[in-house]
Specification:
Elements (H helix, E strand, L loop, with lengths): L2 E6 L4 H13 L3 E7 L19 E5 L5 H11 L3 E4 L6 H6 L1 H22 L12 E7 L23 H20 L3 E6 L1 E3 L8 H10 L4 E4 L5 E6 H14 L5 E4 L4 E3 H16 L10 E4 L14 H7 L7 H14 L1 H7 L3 H12 L1
Parallel strand pairs: 1-2, 1-4, 2-3, 4-5, 5-6, 6-10, 7-9, 8-12
Antiparallel strand pairs: 9-11
Helix pairs in contact: 1-7, 2-4, 4-5, 6-8, 8-10
Bound molecules: nicotinamide-adenine-dinucleotide and thymidine-5'-diphosphate.
The site of thymidine-5'-diphosphate (TYD) has 12 residues, from helix 6 and strand 8.
């Protein structure tokens, strides 16, 4: 094999798209996917590639230093693409400690093993090795009406989730600056697409509209997010992993800002058509609810560095990506039912134990 890469969190939403892309595109790479299979991780997300000879799944926790060491000894990794995380802001408000554990302690555990195994030091920066950390634009905080986040924007996180990601970004940079670990960080805007757990805005709204349930809109629905199709994010990670400059940060975004309420209304009208409902029928489900505590008003990413230096661009118009996403959820009812039923995880745990 030309390279062996450890991808963490590969059974989650973005991770599964990254694993799929790497396994299919690089048949001469060995891809090892380490995932704890929390509520957000599902092996069903990777059914189409699970039998490929260049792919291996390991169930485990990124906080388990012994396991990470064993994996490094066994596979002699050239790279790590680290996506495993607790990722939902609302959950971080009700249980911040889990976010500290996985996002901060888990990341530092991985950094320690990579540093040790690659014998990183400022005198001998290991060649051909890379620790790639997938982070979020939320570390930059909240924007007013104008401006966009640049790679140089100061960190100003507000939620326990974004604070944990900001903290781990700092650790990743510290391991580069102090120990010579070859690292790259990318900070991406909100993703949407297939295999997105239906607790986040877009899949939750699709699921609720389909089931004629209220669609909760926090506050006045005036908050703005910059949405990127998940497969475009995976492509960006591929380009940055292979061509990015060690020690650098890259912002990734869709240049596609939507006010939450406008996005929900667009979804409602799409769903009316797809489900053969009368125009305006789904929009009746929109329900304004209490705002999220510390709710960031606006995110917008300036991805010009990535676009100029590495020639990456978003490939889809939002309306097209959203329609593809709606179609995927409507034709993958079994997946949706399984992830929303409590037995799903147990079923996959059993399958894993049997193998
Ligand atoms: P997700 O919640 O869908 O998936 C996270 C995955 O990590 C799951 O498969 C879960 O089982 C696994 N995991 C959690 N804790 C673990 C642990 N202790 N050990 C091993 N595996 C563990 O998340 P996502 O939306 O796919 O996000 C992936 C990464 O991208 C995260 O680091 C997130 O911060 C970042 N990110 C997400 C977005 C977005 O819009 N979703 C945007 C920018 C950046
Ligand atoms: P979310 O998908 O949780 O992503 P993030 O908070 O990381 O940006 O939420 C996207 C936006 O939608 C955010 O402004 C919160 C809002 N939101 C709702 O209005 N209703 C919902 O049910 C959810 C989950 C989110």
């Amino acid at each position: 094999m030309k390279k062996t890469i450890l991808i963490t969190g590969g059974a989650g939403f973005i991770g599964s798209h990254v694993v799929r892309l790497f396994v299919n595109k690089y048949s001469d790479y060995k891809i090892v996917n380490l995932d704890k299979l929390t509520y957000a991780g599902n092996l069903a997300n990777l059914k189409d590639i699970e039998k490929k000879s260049n792919y291996e799944f390991v169930k485990g926790d990124i906080c388990d230093a012994d396991l990470i060491q064993q994996l490094f000894y066994k596979h002699n990794f050239d790279g790590v693409v680290h996506l495993a995380a607790e990722s939902h802001v609302d959950r971080s408000i009700s249980n911040p400690m889990e976010f500290v554990r996985t996002n901060v302690i888990g990341t530092v555990t991985l950094l320690n093993v990579a540093k040790h195994f690659w014998k990183a030091s400022l005198d001998t920066i290991p060649k051909g090795k890379l620790f790639y950390y997938v982070s979020t634009d939320e570390v930059y905080g909240s924007l007013g009406k104008k401006g966009k986040f640049k790679e140089t924007t100061s960190y100003d996180p507000h939620s326990p989730y974004s604070s944990s990601k900001a903290s781990s970004d700092h650790f990743v940079r510290a391991y580069h600056d102090t120990f010579g670990l070859p690292v790259i960080i990318s900070n991406c805007s909100n993703n949407y697409g297939s295999f997105h757990f239906p607790e986040k805005l877009i899949p939750l709204a699709i699921n609720n509209i389909k089931n004629n349930k209220p669609v909760p809109v926090y506050g006045k629905g005036a908050n703005i997010r910059d949405w990127l199709f998940v497969e475009d994010h995976a492509r960006a990670i591929d380009v940055i992993y292979h061509k990015g400059k060690v020690g650098d940060t890259y912002n990734i975004g869709g240049n596609n800002e939507w006010k939450n309420i406008d996005l929900i209304k667009l979804l409602c009208s799409m769903m009316d058509k797809k489900l053969g409902r009368k125009k305006g029928e789904s929009a009746k489900l929109i329900t304004y609810v209490k705002d999220r505590a510390g709710h960031d008003m606006r995110y917008a990413i300036d991805s010009s560095k990535l676009q100029k230096t590495l020639k990456w661009r978003p490939s889809l118009k939002f309306e097209e990506g959203l329609e593809r996403t709606v179609d995927w959820y409507l034709s993958n009812n079994e997946w949706l039912q399984n992830v929303t039923s409590g037995d799903y995880q147990k079923y996959y745990d059993m399958q894993y134990i049997k193998r």
